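Final report, results section. Input specification for complex C-07:
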Amino acid sequence: MPFIEFKTGKASGFDGVNIADIKSNIETLAKPLSHVINLSISTGIVPNNVKLAKVIPIYKSDCHCKFSNYRPISILPVFSKVFEKVIYDRLIYFIDKHSILYEHQYGFRSNYSTNLAIIQMVNQISSAIDNKELSVGVFLDLSKAFDAVNHKILLQKLEHYGIRGVALKWIENYLYNRKQYVAFLVLNHLPT
Amino acid sequence: MPIAFTHNGNEINDPMTIANKFCEFFTNVGPYLAKKLPSSNISLDNFFRN
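Structure output:
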């Protein structure tokens, strides 16, 4: 089970269960949890309760009175993290084995870092200087990139790269029909 | 956090309405930005790596 790697002391999701609760009861939980996860993987169905996020507005800047001046922090139930970790390990194994990711993808990958991205850029600039060429850098940032991802295109891409059948169904099920509620002050607004 | 929010010129004080508006805002911000992206006639296949 992947629990050991999780950090304790993090906020809990809608169910109020935190990692410490699970760690201290792992012997009781391991068997039923494995059963549910195995069932999820074999059917491609993700339980609704792991798709329910508690969202906390975090103030950014300017007026406190505008909704757009807050960023959402989504907190998923800890059980959701276990499901994600199990799937992630399988997915990244497949992706690495078939070298699917772009070689200069430095973010969100283990053993890669922004330092590597800098080294690569410095190398390119150095060789441009050696070749008496000019270097031009174009830097861009996408607003709300994660929120703006088109899930239909994402699923088509995954299918193209070989994630098919039940595995693809699982990811589709994971992405769709998600629910969230905003926890504001002490008031919890339950999903409609 | 403050008690009063302004939204479309209206003042909102009710915590439940504030939570609802937050939920609505956070849910729609991504799709709203995505909608503003220009559409493309280039087939998805052109973006795949072989």
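Residues 29 and 39 of chain B are 18 Å apart (CA to CA). The mean pLDDT of chain B is 85. This concludes the modelling results for the funded period.
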